[in-house]
Amino acid sequence: MPLKRRIERIMLIVPPLVMPDVDAKKRIAPPLGIACLAAVLEKDYDVRVLDTVMEGYEQESSYAPSVKRVGLTDDEITRRLADFNPDLIGLSVAGTDQYPTAHATLRLAREVRPDAITVMGGIYPTTQPEKALGDANLDYVVLGEGDLAFSALVRAIESGDDAELPDGIGRRENGRPALAPKKNFIENLDALPPPARHKLRMDLYVHADRSYRFGPLRRPHTSIFTSRGCPGRCIFCDAAHMMGRRFRAHSAARVLDEIQGLITDYGIRELAFLDDNLTWDRARAEAIFDGMVKRGFDLAWMTPNGLALYAISEPLIEKMKQSGCYAVYLAFESGCQEVVSKVIRKPLNLKKARRYTKKFKELGIETTGMFVIGFPGETKEQIEQTIRFAEDVECDYVSFSIATPYPGTELYRICERDGYFVDGFNDDDLVFGFGRGHIRTPDFTPDDVLRFRREAWERINFRTDPVRKQKVEEWLKR
After folding, report:
1. Is the full-model pTM beyond 0.90?
2. What is d(CA 406, CA 251) in angstroms, rounded to the nearest whole number?
């Protein structure tokens, strides 16, 4: 039934995290997705952002066996809600590791503000909207890119004209999920305002000890998105659900102006580019890197989400170095070309990738090789080939992840279709089964993959060379 409600105050919430209780490397970074929403909404509404993870960074409690909860306590979240008294409450669930606490936060929100509208966005409600809407405390979900869809929903609620759902919005109708599939993505990203970082506690983010896997090298530091969409079709990735497959980007001039603002407003000395495809448009990438040099930006920068090795060139690598790049994460995925091409379906030539890795090393740019093992269709021999490749390519550090079938991915569909999930598997295992294999095929068991990962990690990252071992250990401590 259509609602008609006056909305004045909107609270956007990042719910607490759950993570392994043995992992001391908590990472924190500005929630740029929420900041983008706030930038669109703040023209017409009083918007407040509550990042329960950042504000409760030192607060930990037991959540489940071997799992801890990180973030503000329920009592503190309740107090913040009561103090602001929002008319609409939006939750951003960026990863699978937040959905249990997101639903717990919804329950608190409903207790404090029983008449408030509740909305959830992010990868979890986008890939599992029916599951999310199974919670009676949730009124709407936003599917995928939410900048304009969220504000369209708010306007529809205010006018009472939400009988026809806006693009990319879902809700319950007659007790069942009703979804308007995401069809339209924002073409002109420059038309959007810059993320409303002034709504965040930037004083805390920019001095955090750890924002991504390692680092930072310098402080103050922060992150930036300059593009959206990924044309790749890697079977384990769910990025296309959020931002689509077509590459869309801010102009180089807009990116440079935003960086200048970060330097002016927050004294930023290090940046993390979070793009899935920073260099997809090489001409744009060159213009950004050249502009950073021309404007005299004294910045160190890195690419924690991984660099698409199929979208770079040696001249571009030189421009990256000139503009301040000091570390890159290289998304090889596999060291076996057959697995890369036919199993993962990534458009990467490993011979070229080797050459580019050598170029990074020649220029003194630190390299982390990112690999994933344990895919259906992959053999033990091919996993061993990946490990040999990872050793031979001589990155400064290598990361081995276990193929994980997240909902919404092609990998999940393959496992479901062919019966490759381990006995008793359910989606909650992806939250509470940290570091475990969930896939069993005729070629390997989860224990096989875990053994490969452990042995490769020790053999490559902590090989007998004492200088290399010291370097890696120092890197891990950053």
Report:
1. yes
2. 32
Cα-based distances in Å from 154 to 45, 126, 164, 173: 10, 18, 13, 18
Dihedral in degrees, nearest 10, Cα atoms 72, 75, 79, 82 = 120
pLDDT tens column, 373-408:
999 999 999 999 999 999 999 899 899 999 999 998
Please measure the distance between the N-terminal and C-terminal CA atoms of the chain and give it in whole angstroms: 53
Q: What is the DSSP string of 415-469?
A: HHHHT-BPTT--TTHHHH-TT---B-BTTB-HHHHHHHHHHHHHHHHT-S-HHHH
Q: Is the pLDDT of residue 475 over 50?
A: no
**Residue 136, helix vs strand vs coil:** coil
Q: Cβ(241)–Cβ(333) under 8 Å?
A: no
- Encode pLDDT of 271-318 as tens digits: 999 998 899 999 999 999 999 999 999 999 999 888 888 889 999 999
Q: Which of 101, 113, 114 is nearest to 52 (CA)?
A: 101
Sign of CA dihedral 333, 337, 338, 341: positive
Q: How many CA atoms lie within 13 A of 154 on its CB side?
A: 28
Say if residue 250's pLDDT is above 70. Answer: yes
Mean pLDDT: which of 7-21, 202-216, 316-330 is highest?
316-330
∠ CA 29-30-33, rounded to 5°: 120
166 touches 197 (CB < 8 A): no
* Residue 69 host element (H or E): strand 67-70
| Alpha-helix runs per DSSP H in 30-178 | 32-41, 52-55, 74-84, 99-112, 123-127, 129-133, 147-159
